[in-house]
Amino acid sequence: MKGRLLEEIQRAVASHPGRTSWREPLMACADAHDPLFGRLGEVANPGHLQPSDILRGARTVIAYFLPFSRGIIAGNSSGRYASDGWARSYIETNALIAHINTRMSAVLESHDFRAGTIAPTHNFDVQSLLSPWSHRHAAYIAGLGTFGLNRMLITEQGCCGRIGSLVTDAAIPADPRPEQEYCPFRIDGSCGACVKRCPVGALSTSAFDRHACYGALLANERRFAHLGRADVCGKCLCGLPCSEARPS
After folding, report:
1. Mean pLDDT computed over 137-161
2. Helices in the chain by DSSP H: which ranges?
3. Per-residue pLDDT band at 13 (split at 50, 70, 90)
4. Bridge partners, 60 (sequence order)
5. CATH architecture of the domain covering 1-174+182-227
6. How far is 117 from 86, CA to CA, in rounded Å?
7. CB 22 within 8 A of CB 13
8. How large is the C-alpha radius of gyration of the chain?
9. What pLDDT, on the 0 to 100 scale, is given for residue 133?
10. Per-residue confidence at 121, pLDDT binned at 50, 70, 90?
11. How far is it, in rounded angstroms, from Cα 19 to Cα 197?
12. Domains of the chain: which residue ranges?
């Protein structure tokens, strides 16, 4: 089943219309009863949902990462504001994630399993800026990577891309989590390049000002209103040792 679902993701990526291009997607699975899900109320959001809140009888959480092409990453590596390509890729990848979830749900249902899906974004509280379901934390629990200083997930394909997740009552073997950190700063205090990249000073080695960050996202959203809802930035993701791959 795991291989069949990954193939469905790969087919969806290869056939999706639009200008955005992606590198090879990654997928991993977590046991829906993994104790780490129970801790998300402490580390992510006091109101964070459990897999069983999304789907009664949940047994597995599937998470996947859609890494942007190197051209999209390079195009957003300079300047104060997000590039047109970065804004467009955000919108098109959100649409792709919704499409992938529909396709994976159909595959699971064809084998008499159920699936519960979560919107890729824009389901957060506008005051706290916290979401009831963190795709990044679900991906971490599933073993797709580890968190960087920039609060993003660093995978084997880097951190520049989008994460989707889905809950199912199919019992799919869980993947192991990485045994060591991928972020150089979290290993030995080196790098920290993402802090310098933030155009509004929202990121430091010890804290993250999510409201200052969101202000930058809204500034870009206004610039790219002709594309749709592109509340993006990505400067703390691009031009880094972890942008396209796990740092060696």
Report:
1. 99
2. 2-15, 35-38, 40-43, 51-54, 70-75, 84-110, 135-142, 184-188, 193-197, 210-223
3. very high
4. 31, 168
5. 3-Layer(aba) Sandwich (3.40)
6. 25
7. yes
8. 17
9. 97
10. confident
11. 26
12. 1-174+182-227
